[in-house]
Specification:
Elements (H helix, E strand, L loop, with lengths): L5 E7 L18 H8 L2 E7 L5 H10 L3 H4 L26 H7 L3 E6 L13 E7 L9 E5 L2 E5 L3 H15 L6 E6 L13 H4 L30 H29 L5 E7 L4 E2 L5 E2 L11 H4 L3 E4 L8 E8 L3 H9 L15 H4 L11 E5 L2 E5 L3 E6 L6 E4 L17 H18 L37
Parallel strand pairs: 1-7, 1-8, 2-12, 3-4, 3-7
Antiparallel strand pairs: 2-11, 4-5, 5-6, 8-11, 9-10, 13-14, 14-15, 15-16
């Protein structure tokens, strides 16, 4: 590629891979996401790095795993919201947008940040329209525009898109752009928070794709609203996805109208997965205690498209993780990262071009504080370092992860080998000063810097978990 492509990076929030038409959901309405998949490559086995927003997003941006970047839970403090302290959690760590900015890109953010110090542009961004914290109402959302706190009375999914379009209006057209559009959709709340025109689309939906059973034994039924009124919450969740899809269509149409669609690499993915009744859970990794690593929590949509440059209509079933995004993107742009050998990810660019990859990744790893996972196409092993219990699933015979075989004698050799590989892999990359594997991460939020840079955590401790 002689000309530097523009980049549109679209990130959804708590968006299960199952909640897209192109991934086989016959009930949800996502024509623009589906069309994007038809124009590019859709990944069947793409995983977040941690099944909760802040660490997952930090891993996308930096290519580091949580015990390298130090964000182990969602940030319940440090964002500068209201009377909170502003903490730059990723200070001194280079994100791929730093590299892009240094190579001439004009970098813009519209939407959710949730990696600390929300009022100040970081990581090479010059355009900064940002959510003050991590989530909240869709009407009356707390945002940051031009460095000032504002309350958006309009539907925030529309406003995030409007601000992205505003950036395209005012950008320096002599430079390539990188535009991150980070929707808060379809994160809760779901009832009375979405335009009726979208909610009505699901009035008669059977929601066969979200079976509601008995709550999981670990489910936090007193926290998530889906347990008490599942149907109305499902209508809201599906409406949030469809409203986001409509706005994604607005972005793509703008690229088409300006004649720059074929000059733009488009990536669509989610920060983490989501259960909407699946496994008896509403929520993601911290929808239960102990935190869970079910595929519904850790699997995310990932679609990449560059019309006229990359092949169209492809489906990839190889295993990749969000820590592979940074090396792939920099490889695509021909930008060298001098610290690449210290990062766990690898570029899958050859695969996008229709070429083969030597030594294809055969496993992925996830982490949420003291919970670590190793997954292959055949098996999944989950180890909980502090409080247990451990889990093992044979995905060939049990793809829904219903039967924990951790004590089954037939699998002990496989379990031992997977545990060894998991420990070896994490030991290669972990910074012991900010490792969360033996810290009391309970899914209730992180308030301060990890390790020796500050108090490890003040965790929101519910009495029943102490």
């Amino acid at each position: 590629m002689q000309k530097k492509p523009n980049i549109l990076f679209i990130l959804s929030d708590d968006h299960g891979v199952w909640a897209n038409g192109c991934y086989g959901n016959h009930e949800i309405i996502t024509p623009n996401i589906d069309n994007l998949a038809e124009r590019g490559t859709r990944f069947e086995n793409f995983f977040c790095v941690s099944p909760v927003c802040s660490p997952a997003r930090a891993s996308i941006l930096t290519g580091r795993i949580p015990p390298q970047h130090g964000i182990h839970d969602y940030l319940c403090d440090g964002n500068g919201y209201e009377n909170q302290e502003s903490i730059e959690f990723l200070e001194g760590q280079r994100g791929y947008t730093d590299f892009l900015n240094e190579h001439g890109y004009q970098c813009a953010l519209s939407g959710k940040w949730h990696m600390g110090d929300s009022f100040r542009p970081q990581k090479g961004f010059s355009f900064w329209y940002c959510h003050q914290k991590g989530g909240g109402p869709y009407y009356g959302a707390p945002m940051v525009r031009d460095g000032k706190a504002v309350t958006e009375e309009r539907y925030i999914t529309d406003v995030i898109t409007d601000e992205a379009l505003r950036f395209l209006d005012i950008r320096d057209k002599s430079r390539p752009f990188y535009l991150s559009v980070h929707y808060t959709a379809p994160h809760s709340p779901w009832i009375d928070n979405h335009p009726e025109e979208y909610v009505k689309l699901y009035e008669d939906c059977a929601f066969e794709t979200c079976p509601q059973g008995e709550p999981h034994p670990w489910a936090l039924t007193d926290i998530m609203p889906g347990y008490t009124n599942p149907r109305e919450n499902l209508k809201g969740y599906f409406a949030a996805v469809t409203a986001m899809d409509y706005n994604i269509g607005r972005l793509i149409k703008r690229l088409e109208d300006e004649g720059i669609l074929e000059d733009t690499l488009i990536i669509f993915t989610g920060d983490n997965g989501m259960n909407c009744g699946h496994h008896g859970i509403w929520g993601k990794g911290n929808g239960t205690f102990p935190m869970n690593m079910y595929d519904y929590s850790v699997k995310v949509p990932f679609i990449i498209s560059h019309p006229g440059v990359l092949p169209e209509g492809k489906v990839c079933d190889e295993l990749f993780s969000a820590y592979d995004i940074m090396p792939t993107l920099l490889d695509y742009l021909g930008i060298e990262n001098p610290e690449a050998d210290k990062l766990p990810g690898r570029s899958f660019l050859p695969l996008l071009k229709g070429e083969t990859i030597d030594e294809k990744p055969v496993m992925v790893f996830d982490e949420y504080g003291p919970v670590r996972m190793i997954r292959t196409k055949e098996y999944k092993y989950i180890h909980r370092y502090v409080y247990g219990p451990n889990e093992f699933y044979d995905l060939k015979t049990d793809p829904n992860e219903d039967n924990n075989l951790i004590d089954h004698p037939e699998y002990q050799d496989i379990i031992g080998e997977m545990k060894r590989k998991m420990d070896t892999w994490f030991n290669k990359y972990v910074d012991p000063e900010i490792d969360g594997a033996r810290e009391p991460v309970m899914g209730g939020g992180q308030k301060n810097l990890a390790g020796l840079r500050g108090p490890m955590y003040d965790v929101y401790r519910e009495n029943k978990y102490v």
